[in-house]
Structure to design on (942 residues):
């Protein structure tokens, strides 16, 4: 609990109405989108600007009070849960787009802007911000940067990291630094910009960002390919790339996911096939036309039982929306849905999907798989019930085996969800102790008092799905 | 000087023929491509593999012996000069391409491979490694990674950093770590991969890299646009981007550079115009055709006095080669050529070029300017004579003013050459003391004994163009 003196100091900075510590507000910010992971903060603070954040950080650093910067809390790794109490920092007053620079093709924004709003604003000018995490309708851009969010367009356009050109950061000692800029090239020292992208709020607080924009592609087309056989779908993915075509999107859904999505979205998806690929290409109209024809041909050559090219943008949009609803659709089926994001090199997709199925069988748990096949980023999703402790134990074991298999295939324990509190016990699988030691060295160098989002990335405790702390 | 005991330990690791400490060999590795910057190493060591490097590093860490990893020494910031003595580490035995993976579109390579050889090897398979530093014919890929090298294609394709997917690194304590992988998405902890790219050998030794490849674009076209007026050329650059066209290359040469290049390359460049833009586009044939037509139109609208589209690939190649020879051409004119790379946002190119000309006049020094206008990365190049101490002092003052101006315009002190020893005294202009402190924190966390390429990035000594140390 915060002392009265500290509470007063914080109120002096942000004003009475921007400091909350009622039980009700503590509960609201005690969890994020991660199932069944709950810990209470001491208070919620909503500063107006970078200067206020710097003052707050200085106080927290002096009194060793944890700070959890939080966007909309859509992350799935318990990355924004206040596991050691302290204050949750909100960006509701720092939600302005500061500039769209059409000459340098950049946007400069505060962290609290909703991702989709940012996309719409740049698209209105014929520009394009590609990273599209599934939560983009509610996620904040600051959260995307802290998590290095991915999305459906990662195959062709990369992830959030590839679009962050410069940052303003409040360091854990309260110092304000600026990294990068509107610069395609900048080698003045270490790349702090990309170090902070994906650092999950553990190294400092991002208070402003300059992002790279692209010209909006002129055309887009969408294909749905249906398969009776998982391997054939995975083969198609490899063949498309081997033919030197990089589609914008190359999504995979297994039968159970298709059934759940169709049940939910009712857009006429076939529910009797074993796998579906949703493929999109964008670019110049002629190129898109050529690529889509070639892709359709490759799907057929690789034993797709049916290939449908979306006839209109409405039809394409319905397919995309259906794909984006996969998690919501699955979440309706059982009380608890655990979505993971083991990722492998693209060539290993078939092996990984069949390993997931074998592991699910071995531990007698229900796992559906969908995800970004083009970039090897799969979302094995377990339908379970957290109240069934015995089953949850089997689920945990199954996921541990899935992570080990992913790393064995040259992959990683998390492609786009982050480590947070949930994946921390598995980090050594990917990095080894020496790799973790190197990262921890950076954490200690920046944040001696461990105030920035403590208990994330480096914690070694075994993961617990139900925690209620009153720290 | 190394003690006999240490010398014997190193010889035991690499063998007699891979340890050199004769005066002659010390002299060979006492400088890099940076003019007039020379310091002697104690020895030159050429290991065969990562294991040997780890053993060498452990000894150096124990006895606090500086290690300077060195590719072909083509850098221009004195980044590979052994300013504190110690050993220079060569990669001549680690010069193999380990794998080209056509399914995942990656190449895995040892650091000692020549950049152009690597490019040719992937192009033979219809693939494309875009970063093309001017020194690519002799530079090593490991050096490119350590320096985050840029090149002419940066505008559309980015820089070396954008292609490094995974690294094997020997840390300053001898630990071997692996970062990233053949993974489009990986958020397992901090982004060590990009932290090491551009860290100039100060954080560890890169012993293997996995790089991203693209499908080879099918077509390419080249335009030369001539201007009587600098501003018109700069305006054209902005207008092309504002028209949502991102060319692969958008190079600028001022009159003095054109004259020197034509004198050197004799390909019939006009020497009576004030500025030239060399513009290239690649992609699908139809798109290239359309873009090039539009670009030619924009050049004319913005007062180009002549616009030539290269009639053949041979003609285009001659133009590219001429541009790449700019430094060599200028270097023939005076005993000393100092090439800098102040970089600004693309929109500020006109202001920066005219500021450079004003500053050159103010200090009565001869500065030619060419560079990558599309990404704001200019190369103001001073033709001088290092034996004329009074002039060199004016040159130094002029460059300091140029760096300050670049930062004032939202730019940086170095776009692609690195900080090394030469730019260290100016780093604070871009980063401020708090930014440098953050970077130095990382350096200290990784390299407590400061053995990795010491005296680079963080040194505060004023720069000296003639140094001969016998440490």
């Amino acid at each position: 609990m915060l002392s009265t003196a500290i509470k007063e100091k914080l109120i002096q900075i942000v004003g009475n109405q921007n400091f909350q510590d009622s039980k009700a507000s503590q509960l609201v910010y005690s969890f994020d989108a991660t199932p069944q992971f709950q810990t209470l903060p001491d208070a919620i603070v909503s500063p107006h600007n970078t200067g206020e954040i710097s003052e707050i950080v200085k106080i927290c650093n002096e009194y060793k009070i944890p700070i959890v910067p939080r966007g909309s809390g859509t992350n799935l790794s318990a990355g924004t849960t206040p596991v050691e109490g302290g204050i949750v920092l909100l960006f509701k007053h720092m939600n302005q787009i500061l500039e769209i620079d059409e000459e340098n093709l950049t946007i400069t924004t505060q962290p609290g802007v909703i991702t989709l709003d940012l996309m719409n604003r740049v698209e209105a000018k014929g520009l394009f911000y590609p990273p599209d995490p599934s939560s983009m309708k509610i996620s904040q851009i600051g959260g995307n940067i802290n998590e290095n969010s991915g999305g459906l367009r990662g195959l062709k356009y990369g992830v959030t990291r590839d679009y962050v050109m410069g940052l303003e950061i409040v360091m854990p000692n309260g110092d304000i630094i600026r990294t990068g800029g509107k610069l395609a090239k900048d080698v003045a020292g270490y790349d702090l910009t990309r170090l902070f992208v994906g650092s999950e709020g553990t190294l400092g607080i991002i208070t402003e960002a300059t992002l790279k924009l692209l010209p909006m592609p002129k055309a887009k087309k969408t294909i749905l390919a249906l398969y009776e056989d998982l391997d054939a779908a995975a083969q198609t993915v490899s063949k498309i790339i081997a033919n030197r075509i990089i589609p914008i999107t190359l999504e995979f859904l297994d039968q159970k996911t298709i059934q759940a999505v169709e049940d939910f979205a009712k857009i006429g998806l076939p529910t009797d096939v074993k796998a579906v690929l949703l493929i999109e290409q964008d670019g110049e109209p002629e190129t898109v036309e050529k690529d889509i024809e070639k892709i359709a041909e490759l799907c057929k050559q690789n034993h797709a039982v049916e290939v449908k090219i979306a006839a209109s943008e409405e039809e394409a949009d319905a397919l995309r929306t259906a794909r984006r609803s996969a998690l919501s659709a699955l979440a309706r089926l059982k009380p608890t849905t655990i979505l993971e994001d083991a990722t492998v090199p693209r060539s290993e997709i078939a092996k990984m999907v069949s390993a997931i199925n074998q592991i699910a069988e071995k531990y007698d748990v229900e796992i559906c798989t969908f995800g970004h096949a083009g970039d090897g980023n799969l979302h094995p999703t377990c339908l379970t019930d957290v109240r069934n402790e015995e089953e949850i134990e089997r689920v945990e074991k199954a996921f541990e085996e899935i992570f080990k298999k992913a790393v064995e295939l040259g992959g990683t324990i998390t492609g786009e969800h982050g480590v947070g509190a949930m994946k921390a016990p598995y980090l050594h699988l990917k990095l080894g102790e020496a790799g973790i030691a190197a990262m921890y060295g950076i954490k200690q160098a920046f944040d001696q008092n461990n105030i920035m989002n403590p208990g994330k990335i480096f914690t070694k405790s075994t993961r617990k799905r139900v925690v209620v702390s009153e720290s």
Observations:
- Chain A has four domains: 4-90, 97-215, 219-316, 334-417.
- Chain A touches chain B through 91 residues (CB under 8 Å).
